[in-house]
TrEMBL record:
Protein name: YigZ family protein
Positions of the UPF0029 domain: 149-205
Organism ancestry: Bacteria, Bacillati, Actinomycetota, Actinomycetes, Micrococcales
Residues annotated as domain Impact N-terminal: 15-132
InterPro entries reported in the protein's UniProt record: Impact, Impact_N, Impact_N_sf, Ribosomal_Su5_D2-typ_SF, UPF0029_Impact_C
Membrane-spanning segments: none
Length: 222
């Protein structure tokens, strides 16, 4: 998914027509439609503002619009570009793309040369793909925060050991008496059990590990 708050852009010129692709991270259908309206308002001089969006952890909500272009030549190719896009890491591992919670708007200024149906399909798809290739993407993971306290004198050493074991460490909180260390773990039974065992080993069994509520986290692409 896109990094929070990003509105990423890419522009192509094909046979004198300009295609401006704008990507927004959107978590709801209302947010997607607001993003579309915002881009359209910014570019009222353009003839077409074609759109596609994919929403939900399972990508269950998809919509597209040709906005006056011949049917099937803009919105659907844009939607396919979103749903079929895979990061370099996914492509290298042979994994399919799983991009979601993103809205694409492609603004077209007609340059006087007709592209034909096939040309429009390729142009709208290429515009979205060009924006995705350089967009600031993140991965979203359902996680659970595990926390425990340690004496101030031990906090630095314990945190370093936790990092050395490959866990994602959140910022440590300090109060007058103790330090609270927090570790982010995928919300899967095996991962949580392994993490609790690992933390017990690092702290020689002295840590009273508390489970936080499940939460979604944006993490860097691996």
């Amino acid at each position: 998914m896109l990094r929070a708050g990003s509105g990423h852009r890419a522009e192509l010129e094909i046979k004198k027509s300009r295609f401006l692709a704008v990507l927004h991270r959107t978590d709801t259908e209302d947010a997607a439609r607001e993003a579309v309206a915002e881009v359209a308002a910014q570019h009222r001089d353009a003839r077409h503002h074609c759109t596609a969006f994919v929403l939900g952890a399972s990508r269950g909500t998809t919509r597209s619009s040709d906005d006056g272009e011949p049917a099937g030549t803009a919105g659907i190719p844009m939607l396919q570009a979103l749903t079929q896009f895979a990061t370099p890491q996914q492509r290298a591992g042979g994994h399919p793309g799983d991009l979601s919670d993103v809205t694409a708007v492609v603004v077209r200024w007609f340059g006087g040369v007709k592209l034909g149906a096939g040309g429009l399909v390729r142009a709208y798809s290429a515009a979205v793909t060009a924006a995705l290739e350089t967009a600031p993407l993140r991965r979203r993971l359902r996680c659970r925060e595990l926390s425990f306290t340690a004496p101030h004198a031990d906090a630095g050493r314990v945190e370093a050991e936790i990092r050395a074991h490959g866990y994602t460490v959140l910022p440590t909180d300090y109060d007058a008496a103790r330090a609270t260390l927090r570790v982010l773990v995928p919300d899967r039974a095996d991962d949580l059990a392994d993490a609790r065992d690992g933390l017990a080993g690092i702290t020689s069994g002295r840590a009273d590990v508390l489970d936080g509520a499940p939460q979604w986290r944006d993490l860097p692409l691996e």
